[in-house]
Specification:
Elements: H1 7-22, E1 39-44, H2 50-54, H3 59-66, E2 69-74, H4 84-93, E3 107-109, E4 113-114, E5 117-118, H5 119-127, E6 135-137, H6 140-150, H7 158-165, E7 169-173, E8 202-203, E9 206-207, E10 213-215, E11 223-225, H8 227-238, E12 247-252, H9 254-261, H10 268-290, E13 298-303, E14 314-320, E15 328-330, E16 339-341, H11 345-352, E17 367-369, H12 381-422, H13 428-446, H14 449-452, H15 458-487, H16 493-497, H17 499-518, H18 544-565, H19 569-586, H20 594-611, H21 618-640, H22 649-660, H23 663-679, H24 688-701, H25 706-713, H26 717-734, H27 740-760
Parallel strand pairs: 1-12, 1-13, 2-16, 7-9, 7-12
Antiparallel strand pairs: 2-14, 3-6, 4-5, 6-8, 10-11, 13-14, 15-17
Helix pairs in contact: 1-21, 9-10, 12-13, 12-24, 12-27, 13-15, 13-17, 13-27, 15-17, 17-18, 17-19, 18-19, 18-20, 18-26, 18-27, 19-20, 20-21, 20-26, 21-22, 24-27, 26-27
Length: 803
């Protein structure tokens, strides 16, 4: 009895391959032991980028970073631009949060005057309990209400609570106020307290009052930190070199925060000069502070917890600690050397002090990964400056590229409808439309090349993407002629030849995506249809737009290969394509895409059922839903079996579900649904969906039933079209990019529809009657134009016309 691929055998093979790949020796970094850390200094440099660091004279910071593991910090939390309240509350929670502008800067010593009394009185009045420490923030309860509304599971003050429970001292030194006197609430900016205050807003030590400030005519708002007072406050908080108690102290270079807030009140050149001056002054203070730090027992974490005043950037991140060699920072959150997230800092502080991380923290502690630097070598500043430049270039290009892509797709559909309605005998319009369709297909994979080619200017970008796609489209347009000539004019060879350009370009898109994700996702980052490190949602694996491309390319390619290769091998290879795409998308070490797997399994299964001639019943639909959940569960458990620091967000979701039941899952679903609905009114992708759906409906129900002609010439495409639509609907519901996911999928489908429609539509009495030699060509060659040697297929009365 010949061997056949049954569902159980296929599932067993997937699980076996996934397990082998996940746990292959050497895939996980070996755990290393390091000396215990006594105290941790968190050096906060608001808005500091690597480019700004490179342009200033900062010998103390440079020496510190040369001795550290370093990376680019993604400070994106909830809002597009991260303000100090967002950044510091995220540091304290270990999970993305947003500041509340009215209160996040309100932190005081309890004896400071506030609200016609003292801050301690105001705290008791607002919170309902007396202050339990010398410094209080009035913001945590408002922040917690906002965090609960966002369904991210954040617990405000989680870091402070964990340190307090472990008996670790906490202190903050810094003041970013915008006035030397007065009680106006908008002038108070002590957001730094949120990093180490507990869940009730209490901080046991430090200095955050205006005693740290002095008049500075050249400084932002005419204010500057008093270096002597600040240094004395730090020494008191740090406790001296002989102190044995464990402690975490955050020192803020508050003048940098003031300059960032001053950006809208000055020119760009003046802003940069003021920032450089403030940074150089901070460097002198840093040198004095580091003299108090014992590098053999103390750790220093460098963080820039908010964006600079001139926009969204990647910021400076560094870690110097006993046993940590100079190298590139990474974490399980990013899985990419040279990048860490703001949410990773709280788990890093706890890890340095050997304190267990609370389950509410979504971040993971810093790791050092290769390529490693030798001790004494300079930090790779140029590499980080380039990463920031490429990310910002991608962010600038996203809107114009997406808008142009959507516009061209809509125009292509409209032009195809006009040409097909007119039914011109002149083949030129059809040739042109077919070439444009091929070009639009080739554009998508080529948008991933600029990242790896380090292209961050418009001219070279357009040359690679637009010019490269034109070359690919021209080459693909020659394939049908060559295939038809090689196969001869008999049978349906010329008809099937039109499928080869589609197979080639879809295969290219799928190969680029799958090959890239299996080799480290080097093409995905900082690309318009991939993801951006400044957004901070993903640093590896498949993003939502990439999932849309992979799923659509796999489904359409499966249908085309089933037609081209015939049974049984065509169907087997088609199913193999779908399996490869699913494993690449769902594997924790590759795609790590939960929503993608949930959307892909039902869609891929429907395509497989129809290609193999099985009917779709209600029972099978329920089974497909169960299979989707089962696939995600299998991938999740595989991830859960890996060491905790190496788990992806899927494994972390399972961790939280083990602690809190299904609440983390329902929170994730509610959050994704809310984000989908919130971006729907403003997304540039919105017009693409109704335009392609309308074109598809016109093909199905128009006067000349064109979609049925496509189905008659390639019946295997019908389940492929249905599969794409199913995946598009599920992709919209299960991913947090909203309408962009189905729009991307329909953007891949639309050129296929147009190309086949203009080449396979046979009006009466026109080119469908052409025979070899009728246009002066040699016998056996495909005639010039769009026509193929296939008599019109008659349709049976009552035959369904839906895809």
């Amino acid at each position: 009895m010949p061997w056949s691929l049954s569902p159980r055998r296929g599932l067993a093979a997937i699980v076996l391959v996934a397990a082998v790949v996940t746990f292959w020796p050497g895939g996980a970094g070996a755990a290393t032991s390091r000396p215990p850390v006594r105290r941790v200094l968190v050096l906060s440099l608001p808005g500091l980028t690597w480019a700004a660091l490179d342009q200033a004279r900062v010998p103390n910071l440079e020496r510190l970073l040369d001795e550290s593991a370093v990376g680019s910090g993604s400070v994106r939390t909830i809002r597009r631009h991260t303000y100090p309240g967002d950044g510091y509350s995220t540091l304290g929670a270990g999970t993305s949060t947003a500041g509340v502008f009215d209160v996040d800067g309100l932190a005081f010593h309890t004896d400071e005057p506030f609200e016609d009394g003292t801050a301690g009185d105001a705290y008791h009045r607002r919170i309902g309990r007396p202050a339990a420490g010398p410094i209080v923030s009035l913001a945590p309860h408002a922040l917690q209400r906002d965090a609960d509304r966002r369904h991210r599971g954040a617990e405000i003050g989680s870091l402070g609570d964990a340190l307090a429970a472990a008996g670790v001292d906490r202190a903050v030194v810094g003041n970013a106020d915008e006035a030397l006197a007065g009680r106006e609430e908008h002038t108070f900016h002590r957001e730094a307290v949120l990093a180490l205050a507990d869940g009730h807003g209490v901080l046991p030590a430090g200095e955050v009052s205006r005693r740290l400030l002095r008049p500075d005519p050249a400084g932002a708002f005419g204010i500057g930190l008093d270096a002597d007072t600040t240094l004395a406050a730090f020494r008191a908080a740090w406790g001296g070199a002989a102190a044995d108690r464990r402690a975490v102290v955050l020192l803020e270079a508050s003048d940098l925060a003031r300059v960032n807030a001053y950006r809208s009140l000055t020119t760009g050149a003046r802003f940069r000069a003021m920032f450089r001056s403030a940074l150089e002054a901070a460097d002198v203070l840093v040198g004095q502070v580091l003299a108090q730090v014992d590098p053999t027992r103390d750790a220093v974490v460098v963080v820039a917890p908010s964006d600079p005043g001139d926009g969204v950037h990647l910021t400076v991140a560094g870690l110097r600690a006993p046993g940590i060699e100079p190298g590139l920072l990474s974490s399980a959150s990013t899985r990419r050397p040279g990048f860490v997230m703001l949410t990773d800092l709280a788990p890093t502080v706890l890890d340095l002090l050997e304190i267990e991380r609370p389950e509410s923290m979504e971040g993971r502690h810093y790791e050092t990964r290769g390529p490693y630097r030798e001790a004494g070598e300079a930090a790779p500043v140029g590499r980080f400056v380039e990463a920031d430049r490429e990310a910002r270039f991608r962010d600038r290009m996203l809107a114009p590229v997406a808008t142009t892509y959507v516009t061209l797709q809509i125009l292509l559909s409209l032009a195809a409808a006009v040409v097909l309605t007119r039914e011109w005998r002149d083949p030129t319009p059809r040739r042109a439309l077919g070439l444009v369709a091929l070009w639009l297909m080739a554009v998508v994979p080529l948008t991933f090349l600029p990242s790896v080619l380090d292209i961050a200017t418009v001219g070279p970008y357009l040359l690679v993407v637009v010019g490269g796609a034109a070359v690919l489209a021209g080459a693909a347009s020659l394939v049908p002629r060559l295939v038809a000539r090689a196969a001869g004019a008999g049978g349906d060879g010329p008809v099937r030849a039109r499928l080869w350009p589609m197979a080639g370009l879809l295969g290219l898109l799928l190969a680029v995506q799958v090959g890239d994700v299996m080799t480290g996702s080097h093409l995905q980052i900082a690309t318009v249809f991939g993801y951006s490190p400044t957004v901070g949602g993903r640093f590896s694996g498949f993003g939502n737009l990439s999932f849309g491309q992979v799923a659509t390319a796999a489904i359409l390619l499966a249908g085309i290969l089933a037609r081209l290769l015939g049974r049984p091998w065509g169907n087997r290879i088609a199913v193999g394509v779908l399996v490869v795409a699913l494993v690449a998308d769902g594997m924790p070490i590759w795609g790590s895409d939960v929503g993608g797997v949930l959307a892909a399994v039902p869609a891929f299964s429907l395509v497989t059922l129809r290609l193999t001639g099985r009917k779709v019943s209600a029972r099978r639909l329920v089974a497909l839903g169960a299979a989707a959940v089962g696939a995600v569960t299998a991938f999740g458990f595989l991830d859960l079996l890996r060491p905790a620091p190496q788990r992806t967000h899927l494994g972390r979701l399972f961790e939280h579900m083990g602690e809190d039941g299904f609440r983390p899952l329902t929170d994730a679903i509610i959050r994704k649904l809310g984000e989908n609905l919130s971006v729907l009114p403003t997304s540039v992708w919105v017009p693409l969906v109704p335009s392609v759906v309308a074109f598809l409906a016109w093909l199905a129900w128009g006067r000349s039933i064109r979609l049925e002609r496509l189905r008659a010439r390639a019946p295997e495409l019908r389940p492929a079209f249905v599969g794409v639509l199913v995946a598009a609907v599920l992709g919209f519901a299960l991913n947090d990019s909203g309408i962009a996911v189905p729009a991307m999928m329909l953007g891949v489908l639309n050129p296929v529809l147009v190309y086949l429609a203009v080449h396979w539509d046979h009006p009466e009495g026109t080119a469908s009657t052409l025979t070899p030699g009728a246009t002066g060509e040699a016998p056996g060659a495909e005639p010039q134009g769009w026509a193929v040697h296939e008599p019109r297929t008659e349709l049976r009365v009552g035959e369904p016309r839906l895809p």
